[in-house]
Amino acid sequence: MTKDEALKLALEALEKSVATCFDRYSHEQVMSRPEHFINQAITAIKQARSAPTVQEPEQWGHLKVYGYAPGDYMMTCRGCNTEVIGVDKRASRCKPCANKAAAQPAPVQPEGWKLVPAEPTREMWIAVNKLDDQMAAGNYDGKGCSIEQAWDCLLDAAPTPPAAQPAVPITESEIEKMWFQQADFPTAGQRIVGFARAIEAKLKEKNSD
Length: 209
Hints:
Layout: H1 3-18, H2 35-50, E1 70-76, E2 83-87, H3 95-103, H4 122-138, H5 147-157, H6 172-180, H7 188-207
Antiparallel strand pairs: 1-2
Helix pairs in contact: 1-2, 1-7, 2-7, 4-5
C-alpha cells in the first residue's frame, strides 16, 4: 500500500466518522468526540495528500519475477531495447519496463499452459542443476539430463505468480477506539497527531504482507 492510498483510506474513515458525531435532525451532540478536532484532521490529511511527494526508498522486490533487480551491471533491456546500468547481472528488463509488465492484467491461462517467470529463479536453477548432476552420475557416458527433462524440471520448480491483494480498510469501530485512545493528550494538536499516527499504524498492521 502506498502512502497516498493509506491517506485516502484514513480520509474516508474520518469523513464517515464526522457523520456520527452529531445527530443530523436534532443538531445535538450524541458522542463525546469534538467534531472540529476531526475536521482539523481531515484538513491536515487533505493537505498531506496534495503536498509534494517525498521520495521513498526504492521498492523493487515484486519486480524480480518481471526481470528487474538493482545491481552493478549493465544490460540491454529486452522491453525497450535500451542500454541500462545499475541492474543485477540476471536482470532482463529495466525498472520502467518491469513496472509496465507488472501493471498488465494477469493473462488467462489455457489448459496445458503454465505461467512462469521471465527469468528462471534461483530455486529453478538449483533444481535443474541437481537433476543434471543426478543424471550424469547415473549414465555410463557421463551425460546429464536431456532438454525435455530440464524443461519439465524447470516448470515443476517455477513459483506461483504473486496475486495483488486489495487494501484492507479500517472499520468504524476501530476508528472510534483509536480516537478515544487519544483522550489523555492535553492539547487538540497532540490528539490529532496521535490519531493520525494510530491510523497509519493500524493500516500498516492490516495490510502488511
